[in-house]
Design brief:
The protein is an alpha/beta fold. It contains eight helices and seven strands; from the N terminus they run βαβαβαβαβααβααβ. Strands 3-2-1-4-5-6-7 form a seven-stranded parallel sheet, sandwiched between helices. The structure holds nicotinamide-adenine-dinucleotide.
Amino acid sequence: MKKQTGGLVEGKIAVVTGAGQGIGAGIAEMLASHGAFVIVTDINLERAEATAKKIRDDGGEAIAEYFNVADFPNVKKETERLASLRGRIDIWVNNAGITGTARVEDITLEDWDRMQTLDIKSVFFCTQAVFEIMKRQNYGKLVHISSMAGERGGRSSSCAYSSAKAGVLNLSKCFALSGGKYNITSNCVCPGRTLTAMAQGLSWLTDPNDAPEKTIPLCRFGTPEDIAGAVLFLSSDISSYVTGDVIDVNGGLYMK
Ligand SMILES: NC(=O)c1ccc[n+]([C@@H]2O[C@H](COP(=O)([O-])OP(=O)(O)OC[C@H]3O[C@@H](n4cnc5c(N)ncnc54)[C@H](O)[C@@H]3O)[C@@H](O)[C@H]2O)c1
């Protein structure tokens, strides 16, 4: 994605978690193509470096940093470290996550705790850490990647996953309520069926009954770029009066 001039987030400093691949990489590339300096973070530093290099090769600005969203004792310190790299953080995208496919009958305590740790506890504590930085700046855009499963229940993904993603929809509203007076917005994007590595383990990818031309009004699965477009809007000042809200990016598969 080549860098454009006069982009929607020109001069902003953005952090994207889990941006070594998939939707996170797509978001990092989209924000950079619209002028943000992107701190590409992941637990897989090699993949984060590859995303940052691609951005630089396309004329954008990005660096890669190791950041584990679930390293709770260090999340606050590490978030402050990320802020110190460019002096501020204008945009924070909570994208990192994992999924699971166990049926309700089969979910174990371990599955449940793992999903809650990676898919909601991490989102809360990362947001709490960056919220302090954004308060000091009197400016911030928080964007959380939830899921269509968080809105309508997990079908190919497990209840442990969908419940965590439902919680993200709610915590986003809590930060919207607390952040308004500091010029901080907090919103969610709910992807539908999106072609990434995560999708490889999910039944909709291969089940003929779930073929997109049969089930999705726009007749195709989503791409990371599709999701990134909504994140760009919520990260930019053209959405300055939007907070506590949700954008569904699912090709019309689920209409509220
Ligand atoms: N792909 C879909 O169909 C789909 C649908 C709805 C929602 N989502 C959500 O979108 C987000 C991105 O999903 P994706 O499909 O790109 O997944 P993915 O598995 O392709 O990528 C996830 C990235 O997160 C990173 N990550 C994992 N644990 C981490 C940790 N502890 N700290 C930091 N980074 C970590 C991984 O290294 C990887 O780079 C997730 O929150 C996912 O739940 C995806």
